[in-house]
Amino acid sequence: MSIINRITELPLVASATEAIPTYYAQVKEASPMFTSVASYTEAAAAKTQEIVAPTANKVVANERVQKVDALLVSYFTAAVERFPMLNSTTEDVVAVYNSTVKSIAEKKDTCMTYLSENRDVLLKRFNDFFNAKKDELNAKKDELNAKKDEMTEQMKTQYNNASEKVNNQYVVASEKVNEQYVAASEKVSEQYVQASEIATQQYKNITDQATPYVEQATEIATKQYNNIAEHATPYVEQIKEKTTPYVEEIKARTSPIVEYAQKTYEQVSTSA
Question: Whole-prediction pTM value?
C-alpha cells in the first residue's frame, strides 16, 4: 500500500528501521533463551506472512481499499508538511531533543542566577508594589467610609423628615377623627333624645290604652275573690268548730309541762 511505503520512506522511520536490526541482534544474542524465543517468533511471523499474503494482496487490489489508501496518503502528506521534523533522522531528533533540554537547563540556571543576584531588588519592588496597593486600598477604604457617613447623615435627615411628616399627618388625622367623633356623638345624642321621646309617647299611648283593661281585670279579680271568700266562710267555721275541742285538750295536757318548765327555769335563774 502507498501509505505504508510513504511511512517507511520517512527519514525518521527509515533510520529507526535501520537501527532496530542491530538492537534486535544484540538482544537475540544476549541469552540462549532470547535466541530460542526470537527464532520461534521469526518462524511464526514467516508462516503468518505466507498464509496472509494471498488474502492481503486481494484486499490491497480492492478499489475501495485503494481509495482509502489514497485518502490516507493525502492526509499523511499534509501532516508531514505541517510537522517538518518527521523528515529528520533519528539522530537529528535526538540531537534537537538534547539541545532543547540543554537550552532549558541553561535558561533555568540563568533565571536562578538572576533571581539570586537581584533578590533584594525584586523584594524591594514587590514591597513597593504591595505598599502602593495597600495605600490605594486604604484610600479607597477612607473614601468608602466618608461616603458611608454621608449616606448615614442623609438617611437620618430623610428619617427625621419622614417622622415629622408622619407626625403632622397623625395630628391632622386625629383632629379629623375627633371632629367626626364629636359630630357622631351629637348625632347619636339627637337620635337618642328623639328615640326617648318616641318611646315615652308610645309608652303613654300603651298605658292609656291598657288602663281600661287593667281596671276591668281588677274588678273581675275582686269579684272572684269576694265570691271565693263568701263560699269558703262556712267551711272555715265548720273546721274551727271541729278543731277547737282538740286544741283545748292539747292545751290541758301541755299546761302542767309548761308550768313545770317555767318553775325549773325560775329556780335555775335564782340559783345562778
Answer: 0.30
